[in-house]
Amino acid sequence: CMDCDVKDLGLAQEGRERMEGAAGEMGVLALIRARFEKERPLEGIRIAACLHVTTETANLVEALTAGGAEVSLCASNPLSTQDDVAAALCEQSGVDVYAIKGEDNETYYRHIEAVLDQRPQITMDDGADLVSLLHRQRADQVFEVLGGTEETTTGVIRLRAMAEDGALRYPIVSVNDADTKHLFDNRFGTGQSTVDAIMRSTNLLLAGRTFVVAGYGMCGRGVASRARGMGAHVVVTEVDPLPALEATMEGYRVLPLREAARIGDVFVTVTGDTGVIRREHLEDMKDGAVLANAGHFDVEIDKGALAELSGGRVRRIRGFVDEYTMGDGRRLHLLGEGRLVNLAVAEGHPAAVMDMSFANQALSVEWIVKGRGTLEPGVYPVPPDIDAEVARLKLQAMGVEIDELTTEQRDYLSSWRQGT
User: pTM of the predicted model, to two decimals?
Assistant: First the structure.
């Protein structure tokens, strides 16, 4: 057992069994792990990972350690840790783990500090809390870092802001922007796991209900699609005209949130921004409305306004369902304390889709290590050849074959001389 702070090491065997179950759905990562074991491209590299501590993350961590890395892991959200997985990684995998589901804010940041105490050469982040804290409070360590990766839309927004301010001191790969990440993980993963979390926690029948999705990025597209598939009447709210136009042409009703607030039964925020559902919206909502957030931080739903409007009249009516009673008697139900609902309430994305995201993580770490000293500070896209390799390996793992271009076709596509 390594240096760890987990809930209960007695849960390790249960966690191991669930990790093995997830591994069966992660064929791409298995292929990468097998190569890493032979080549050891990460030999002696210290990696600090601030990620959701789930069965899928555990398989990524074990692929990295198979490549020779020394990994320390903390949670990127206080409610997203699977305690049995944290125990299994600590007890059986030679990984320092600092993660407990439900940890308070002080413990959350103490765990990030513990990971940074390992003097990492690579950072792996999910929301940029690790990178932010490293730059703000441990400037003396920054020069030791070769580079990092970032998994989320929210984290990439923060990192680009750092880069624009000249504050980002080392290169970071935006895994979120890889096609094999955001087109699949964000859309299919977030869509399925968010709807799963809402149904699992409330047992609501979605068919026939009005389901409001705030934000129509890739994650919002997925949530809207899955809710419509369950028979809900889906309303989309947006601030950007382009995705609003797309949602309209996809057949969704597009409204300002102030109007959607009056008719919605279920609300999901998925914008990556703050103060999306505010006091003026809460005042107009129907009795029994359900509020959920699928963005990374718990700032999209104004929890302070909820507390004020209810005058502290709040009770937990189901696991992770808090009922706030307004002054006029209306009841509003907040899921997962306004945190990332699919991980706070359910199990997060299915392993089969995280397979591609974490394959991008592993290969991007390898790319950074191979290119050490050649990359300037900044936010980098995943190299196109890595993106294509992940797609190729995923098709291989799924047993799907595709065509290849003929010589004639290649010549045609590379020539400008042939016309009508």
Answer: 0.90
